[in-house]
Structures are given as C-alpha cells and as structure tokens.
C-alpha cells in the first residue's frame, strides 16, 4: 500500500541550497526531504516538470523511505566531476571542488554559446588533468545529427570517453551512431531513457552503447535495475543535482548494479555550497561511500525554503501522489 500524503509529509522539510555556480539556469536547488521508517528520501523534480513526470520522482522517494534497499555489491562508488558551462578561467576553480577525480563530464551545446566555446572548455580540462583523464561531454539532446557530427570531429583531438545524449530523438541517435561507427566513440543515452514513455526503445533501436540512469526520474532503484537488465547495455548512474539525501539514493543503485564499468555522476554535492548533513556525500579520492545520510536539524532550519515554497512543494507532492498507481483519490478540501 502506498503511504498517504499526510504520512509522507509528516516530518518533511523543504530546503533551498545555494550552488557554487549557475547550473541548468539556476543558482539554488530546492528539494522536499521525507522521513520514512527506513530512512530519509528526497523528492526534487525540477520546477518546470509537470505532475506526471514528478510522480516518478515521488515513487522513487517512497521506495527509498518506505521500501527495502537492494543488496549492495560494493560500498564505494567511483564518481566523475561535472563541469557546467563556465568560462574557461573558472574551470580550475570548479574542478578543484571535486578533489582528485579521474573523469570529468563537460556540459556542452549551451544555446548562448557555440562549438568554439565547447572546444575551449574541453581543451582546458584536458590540459589541467593530463592525458590519462577521462572526458565525456553531455549535450542534453541539443544538437541535430549534423551538428553532433561536427562536434565529434572538433572534439576528436581530446580523446573523449563518450558523447552523452548528443541528439534528442532515438532516430537521430541511431543515425549519428551509424555515422560514427568507425570512430570508436560511444553514444550514451540519458533523456532517451529517463524522459521516454518506453525507456528501452533506445536500446532496441541500437541507438546507444550505454545508458545513463537516474533513480528519481526512473521511479526508484528497482525499476532502474530492471531497465538496465532488460536493455543489456552498460550503465552509468547519475544524479539530478540532488542533496546528499538524493545522492545516497543514487549510490544505492550504483551499488546494486551487477557491473559498474564507468565512473558515476554522483559527485554533484561538490557543486553545492551548503547541504543538509554535516557529512555530505562529496567526492573523496574520486569516490563516494554507499551509506545512509542523516540530515542535521540545524542545517535543515538554516536552509529551510520560505513558507510559500514549502506550501508549493507540499501541494506538488499531493498532485503527484494522485497519479501513482494504486493511490487513493485526493481528498476534497
């Protein structure tokens, strides 16, 4: 039985955390933290997502706080640094927040910039980290096939690990993968998994070499594990700019995967200048531990969102809850 909204919201905290640099167009991250019988959970769909999409994020939170965690195969998750579209002269500063990591994901294809700016950022990351570092780029589906192919050519000198969601549609990814077949440059699918009605379509189409999976958008660890198993492709676990509570949920997924061949995008607590716990899941020696996160009461108070934002998040949870399979109809107030 799915817990009712009143149970989910009992002891809930809405927080607003500052970021070290603008990311996804924001400088603060809001989240609703829930406390269930099996620990803390996070509900933090991005503000622009509709209720239907937010329902999957709520299912993940319910699983984390009210369900049983899967068996862990590892207790430490190697992570990458994530580099937003910052000026070149800020790259060292941002990367230093992540400590000694061997892999960097560089955000590219910002609508306000061009390919030259992407090349400059990737070049600087390669210069700073040296030839042994692994560099992947993430376009969030912003390129068409021709643009993606041009970008692949321009970025080829920097020995990329893979291209993440270079194009928006499965058909475009398949065409691009065909064009780059002889390049040995893998294509990773992110939005084609987490925002798709059929998250396996990209694998069936042969349009990707690996999947990027995120616990909250996919509705929880169990569903993400099923998707990876059915797709039959390697997986990278990533985050959605979560608090350390949400990152712990991602770490559980990464710990449960049978194979973990790639560093995971679970180091993004380094992009926050504050968190909800005294022991945040920031990278240390290129990894984060697999463990529960216990928010600190003083930090929850210090970073509490304004009352109107708490009201907004509570109402959003109730609307998302009404869309979950097996939920009771919402109360008429």
UniProtKB/TrEMBL annotation:
Pathway noted in the entry: Quinol/quinone metabolism; 1,4-dihydroxy-2-naphthoate biosynthesis; 1,4-dihydroxy-2-naphthoate from chorismate: step 4/7; Quinol/quinone metabolism; menaquinone biosynthesis
Keyword Magnesium: yes
Keywords: Lyase, Magnesium, Menaquinone biosynthesis, Metal-binding
Entries under Pfam families matching the protein: Enolase_like_N, MR_MLE_C
Record has Iron as a keyword: no
GO MF annotations, alphabetized: magnesium ion binding; O-succinylbenzoate synthase activity
Annotated ranges, domain Mandelate racemase/muconate lactonizing enzyme C-terminal: 88-183
Residues binding Mg(2+): 138, 164, 190
Matching PANTHER family: O-SUCCINYLBENZOATE SYNTHASE (PTHR48073:SF2), O-SUCCINYLBENZOATE SYNTHASE-RELATED (PTHR48073)
Full protein name: o-succinylbenzoate synthase
Species for this entry: Protaetiibacter intestinalis
Gene: menC
């Amino acid at each position: 039985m799915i817990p009712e909204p009143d149970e989910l919201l009992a002891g809930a905290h809405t927080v607003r955390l500052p970021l070290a640099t603008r990311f996804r167009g924001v400088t603060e991250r809001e989240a609703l933290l829930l406390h269930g019988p099996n620990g803390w959970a996070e509900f933090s769909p991005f503000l622009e997502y509709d209720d239907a999409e937010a329902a999957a994020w709520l299912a993940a939170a319910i699983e984390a706080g009210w369900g049983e965690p899967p068996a862990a195969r590892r207790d430490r998750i190697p992570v990458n640094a994530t580099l937003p579209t910052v000026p070149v002269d800020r790259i060292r500063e941002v990367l230093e927040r992540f400590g000694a990591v061997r892999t960097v994901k560089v955000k590219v294809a910002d609508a306000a910039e061009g390919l030259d700016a992407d090349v400059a950022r990737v070049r600087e990351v390669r210069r700073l980290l040296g030839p042994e570092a692994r560099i992947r780029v993430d376009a969030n589906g912003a390129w068409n096939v021709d643009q993606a192919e041009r970008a692949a050519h321009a970025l080829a000198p920097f020995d990329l690990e893979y291209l993440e969601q270079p194009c928006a549609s499965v058909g475009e990814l398949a065409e691009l993968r065909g064009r780059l077949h002889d390049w040995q440059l893998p294509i990773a699918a992110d939005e084609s998994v987490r925002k798709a009605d059929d998250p396996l379509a990209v694998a069936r189409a042969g349009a990707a070499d690996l999947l990027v999976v995120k616990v909250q958008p996919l509705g929880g660890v169990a569903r993400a594990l099923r998707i990876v198993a059915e797709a039959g492709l390697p997986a990278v676990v990533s985050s959605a700019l979560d608090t350390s509570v949400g990152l712990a949920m991602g770490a559980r997924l990464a710990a449960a995967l049978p194979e973990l061949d790639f560093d995971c995008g679970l180091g993004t607590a380094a992009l926050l200048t504050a968190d909800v716990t005294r022991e945040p899941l920031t990278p240390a020696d290129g990894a984060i531990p697999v463990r529960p996160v216990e928010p600190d009461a003083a930090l929850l108070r210090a970073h509490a969102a304004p009352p109107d934002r708490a009201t907004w998040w509570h109402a959003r949870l109730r609307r998302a809850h009404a869309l979950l399979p097996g939920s009771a109809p919402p109360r008429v107030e």
